[in-house]
Amino acid sequence: MPEIRHDPLLDRWVIIAPERAKRPQEMPPAEPTAQAQPCPFCEGNEKETPPELWARRDGRGAGPDSPGWTVRVVPNRFPALTTSSPVRHEHTGLLKSIQGVGAHEVIIESPGHEDGLADLPPSHLQSVLEAYRLRLRAAYQDSRLAYALVFKNHKGPAGASLYHPHSQLIATPVIPQNVRLKLETALKHNARTGTCLLCSLLHQERTSGTRVILEADGFIALAPFASRFPYEVMIAPVRHMPDFTDMRNEDLLGLAGMLKDILQRLKMALDDPPYNYFLSTAPNPAALEQEEWDAAHLKSAGHWHLEILPRQRPPAGFEWGSGFHINPGIPEDAAQHLREIGTKRGE
Amino acid sequence: MPEIRHDPLLDRWVIIAPERAKRPQEMPPAEPTAQAQPCPFCEGNEKETPPELWARRDGRGAGPDSPGWTVRVVPNRFPALTTSSPVRHEHTGLLKSIQGVGAHEVIIESPGHEDGLADLPPSHLQSVLEAYRLRLRAAYQDSRLAYALVFKNHKGPAGASLYHPHSQLIATPVIPQNVRLKLETALKHNARTGTCLLCSLLHQERTSGTRVILEADGFIALAPFASRFPYEVMIAPVRHMPDFTDMRNEDLLGLAGMLKDILQRLKMALDDPPYNYFLSTAPNPAALEQEEWDAAHLKSAGHWHLEILPRQRPPAGFEWGSGFHINPGIPEDAAQHLREIGTKRGE
User: Fold this and answer.
1) Is the distance from CB of B55 to CB of B130 less than 8 angstroms?
2) Using CB atoms and an 8 Å cut-off, which of residues 259-288 of chain A contact chain B?
3) B227 shares contact with chain A (CB less than 8 Å)
4) pLDDT tens digits, one per residue of B34-63
5) ipTM of the complex as predicted
6) Which residues of chain A neighbour B319 with C-beta distances below 8 Å?
């Protein structure tokens, strides 16, 4: 059974999940292959996954776990965490752990094995984003789950083990370290200035313009000032919005258009690079007490955003030891290049 | 020129180093090769590196930058940071940066292209550790440098770009996030209990024994309770010792023996895996003021240690987004396996 262990030296958590060692190794980092036989995520192979949690069918198909879907959500067959067990905290001397509880789901982005997000129509990406919104809401129905992270691994060097386009959601009973750091930083800024840190930052970036890649439909894409990786991109709503699950359908369509556009530009600029993306959004209100955070304060301080990290080189000892990243690329140059790709396409 | 940028959302730093993009790509992650022509780190090719900062010669050879050395330290030719410029802090709205200053050195571990640390005699590893000690001391002569991290990247998937065995040292004008978190956690524990956190943890681990791999010559190797990676190993002195640079020569020989032994066991257990290691030690006393830390307090709370991270899978979106690691291996099983390898060798 998976277990969440506390690292007493760094005051952070690690998931120990031996089940994960059994997952198929279709795509080891060194030799990506395009074919798994049979691919459990392809249309027609629905019986190869656990029963679906949600799917968009638009009136087609014969019902759950059969063909006819456009986006489909299933539990991960090799979960890092499972929801089936009660939370059990253990404590031996300096060592703390939490047994079991958590969610791990797979969002299968399209029925076709080769249909990458960059090449699907915006309306299809909208359904993927709708799945994110629905599954985040579902996770937060469970008051044991403090935070749910939606993320995507594209290609082996970015940690993908299956080729078929998919995202994942992992929900944990503690707020993860990076999420906590971000929220604490935002809360401190808010307490000091009365403003939202990301709203202020976006205002400054839009005024300067050098790192802005694109702005449309109420969303902005930019190369962060302190990008950890070359061609890192952040997408955020221009107006203050703490919680991704508050997005309306028309907002999702605007975001879908921007996400597709940015993924296409990255694909052109870097020859379809491996990448990760992940969504930073509000924690489960049920979990605020454990952090002594105030819901109203968090609503003025938090602002959801999506980070896209192209992964052309593995992190090394310096990164692990320091938490510092060395980025050989200049964010302003990346922003300019990605802007120009838009121009070349005749925009 | 390299620049250190502050990430306002996570309150941490990133090094933007465009010079690094020019370094040779002998060893891309996917296709490691054993030959570079000519390898700048091989004996006889001393002119291919910047002038050496230190070398162990034992009376052989014709002087600096010529053959006859066993361990050699040179400035990195493609530095992430350089010491040549004055510290210049910049600040525009929410965005902060520090221009330039820092050190980046390469510790060439042996004159031979194929002589890996696991296979060299302990006396040779002792010279490598002596180089670490000397270069850490030299870095801390510069009061602009707050922390120096010694680390090693073994093989392409662990971030190595050259095959010839080498370690590196990077010194930064700010204390890196992970180092700060560790020291803060240790200081908090010390303020609460009056004890050193790592001393207490080692006591608990030695009593339980399930995660101990080896203990000898005053050093202990164990599989950390919350290991981030399968077969992660920590080596530390059993008795309280805050600063690696206080190690005496006979201590270095004991540590060299243990390091060689552990690297050999990992090589046998995992078929010569890619790995990173790095040293956590005391910051530059000259930098304590910027953190409002007390030197005496830090001396009772800090305890140097070396972490070895085998790197069989790349980190993925969940790790980047959460700071949480998912480890498919059980630390107690890894400890047992690594203990048994010692027994099989007839110990």
Assistant:
1) no
2) 276-280
3) yes
4) 455 789 999 999 999 999 999 999 877 678
5) 0.89
6) 159
